[in-house]
Each structure stands twice: as structure tokens, then as C-alpha cells.
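Q: Could you fold this chain for me?
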Amino acid sequence: MPPIEALQRQAKAHEIGEMPAPTQAKLLRVLEDHKVRRLGSKVETPVDVRVLAATNKNPEQAVADGQLRRDLYFRLNVFHIHLPPLREHKEDLQPLVERLLAEISEKHGKTVSSVGVDVMEMFKSYPWPGNVGELKNLVQRVLILGAGEEIRLEEIERELAVKMAVDEPLVKQDLLALPLREAREQFERAYLQQQLLLCNGKVGQLAKRVGMERTHLYRKLRALGVDFRQLGED
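A: Sure. Below is the predicted structure, expressed as C-alpha cells.
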């Protein structure tokens, strides 16, 4: 029977989908035998516990890929709760932001109490690849750096523009290996997609932002395959 202390340390360091195979085997034995043994002891102690396991991966795919033991998965999968990504339940953004503002303002001694309507619209158009953790970090960063009592659109635009530039640089090394025409198309597509996101999907605002006539911009977006309707056309 595995020592309980070692199992605790190993389990805390990993999600269930990333847990090393030896640790998965130890956890499975505990779930099957309902017994643990303290480090250095030879006495097995009965346990009656409920186990909550989480993973950000598709567990069935992790089983198929050999990352998660099939027997452990079926042992754990008694009651499955699927937590959708933030982009799939954006109706919760308003209460989430309000709660984060209250918590972070109190923690850092700030007086910020609201966000503008335009900021909330941008939040709803952003895909949030980092889910609630990314939202929390963004609100905290803007709240600490800002000076007003309301989070303003220009602050969010600045932070998201910096983040997107880091996450997805417009000029990739791969472009240097392409013919000029293909490289230009890829650059223009990435540039307009990022600018469109900062404009909440509104092509009219985008036209002013990038200095293009609106009709010509529509043709350019269609030619590049940029789906402006997905974010919401104005």
C-alpha cells in the first residue's frame, strides 16, 4: 500500500490527466482497497473518502493516448461534471467581473468599482483562451495600473494588444520562407483579425482604425477569409 504522504505530494503536483503512471497506480490501489499507509509505517489504515479529480484535457482522449489509466478513469468517473470554457458561458462575465473587482479592490486598497459598457462588450467578444484565470489576471493588472474609479476601454485594448502580440506574433519566422505574396497575405490576415478583435468585431470601427475605406475593407476581409460576422458586424 503506498504511503499516504507521498501520494498526497504527487497528487497535488499534477492534474489527473498529467499524473505519472506510478502515481496513478498508487491512487488506484487506494480507491480499490480503501487503505493507506503512513510513511515509515507498516500499519494499513482504512479510509472512507470521496475523491474529486480534475483535468483540463478530454479524459477519454487521455485514455486513448495512454496518458490516463483506463481502470483509474472508470473508477473515478462515477459522477462527471463538465465545466465549459468561459467563451461558452459569457452570460456569466458580468457577475464574474463584478466579483473580481470587489475582491481585488479590497485586497489592493483600490476604489475601482465598475467597468464601462464598452469594456464589457469587448470582454464578451474576446475568446478567453485562458478562461477565468486569464480574466482574473487581466482585471487585476488593469486595476493595479489604472488610476480611475472605472476600468476604461483603452486600458483593456492596450493590455489585450500586448498579450496578443506576445501570444501570436504577427511576423513569424516561417513567413521568411514564403514568397512575398503569401507572406503578405498571412500578415494582413493576422493584423486584421487582431485589430477586429480590439474593435469588438465592428467593421466600421476597424475601417477608421486601420485607415481603409469601408467597402474596400469588406472586400479585403472576405478575400483573406476573415470571418467578421462571428464577432458581430456593426
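A (continued): DSSP finds eleven helices and four strands in the chain.
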